[in-house]
Specification:
Elements (H helix, E strand, L loop, with lengths): L12 E5 L35 E5 L2 H6 L4 E3 L4 E7 L7 E3 L2 E3 L9 E5 L5 E5 L13 E2 L4 E4 L10 E7 L5 E2 L31
Antiparallel strand pairs: 1-2, 2-11, 3-10, 4-7, 4-9, 5-6, 7-8, 8-11, 11-12
């Protein structure tokens, strides 16, 4: 099984922040930038204990308010978990995140795939979740819209891949992750994965 890039418009994404492969957990806030992504790069390509790939929305809240961009299923699957209705304008506040007094809860969708793997799509706009638990979806089907709900410093999609036991897997292949990519087309290290579904 391979995945397509789970967004529809690469022109509105300006940065990718990936899985942290540095095994050390840092308690001090100042050390949260100590990390290693799949190529061995440090912040802003990753941050301490990060468990997925973040795709940041260019233009931030202005772009989000102008319509944002759809989040789509990276592969065929079944919706096994979701949440919606949470505040979606959480933002950076000093060295942390503020949800302006609202619960720091993300709007999200989780898909389970035929292999037992799961993909998680977090930080969606409030009211944008477009699927229901138990629904079968095809690769490329719309799941929601990019927002900034939960532990989110700016509008973005957090895409997370897990095995059947819930262990996080980096979808990118590289010297600090694994030899084989989980993307149909991983693309250039400075770019984004391809948008074709497995099998064309």
């Amino acid at each position: 099984m391979s995945f397509r890039w789970p967004l529809t418009d690469p022109s509105v994404i300006y940065q990718t922040t990936g899985v942290d492969h540095d095994p050390t957990v840092y308690e001090e806030t100042a050390y949260k930038v100590v990390c290693l992504d799949y190529l061995g790069r440090t912040f802003p390509w990753c941050y301490d204990e990060h468990e997925g790939s973040d795709y940041l929305l260019d233009g931030g809240f202005e772009t989000m308010d102008g319509g944002s961009t759809p989040i789509v299923a990276a592969a065929d699957g079944v919706v096994v978990d979701l949440d919606d209705g949470n505040y979606d304008r959480c933002h950076a506040d000093g060295e942390g995140v503020s949800c302006d007094g609202h619960a720091m809860a993300p709007n999200y969708v989780t898909l389970e795939h035929a292999t037992g793997h799961a993909t998680r799509y977090l930080h969606m706009m409030e009211g944008s979740v477009a699927v229901e638990i138990g629904q079968s979806v095809r690769c490329g089907d719309t799941l929601g819209i990019v927002g900034s709900s939960g532990n989110s410093s700016a509008p973005h999609l957090h895409f997370q891949l897990e095995d059947a036991e819930g262990t996080v897997i980096d979808s990118y292949a590289g010297p600090y992750s694994q030899e084989e990519t989980w993307w149909v087309d991983q693309g250039h290290e400075e770019g984004l994965p391809g948008m074709d579904c497995d099998g064309g």
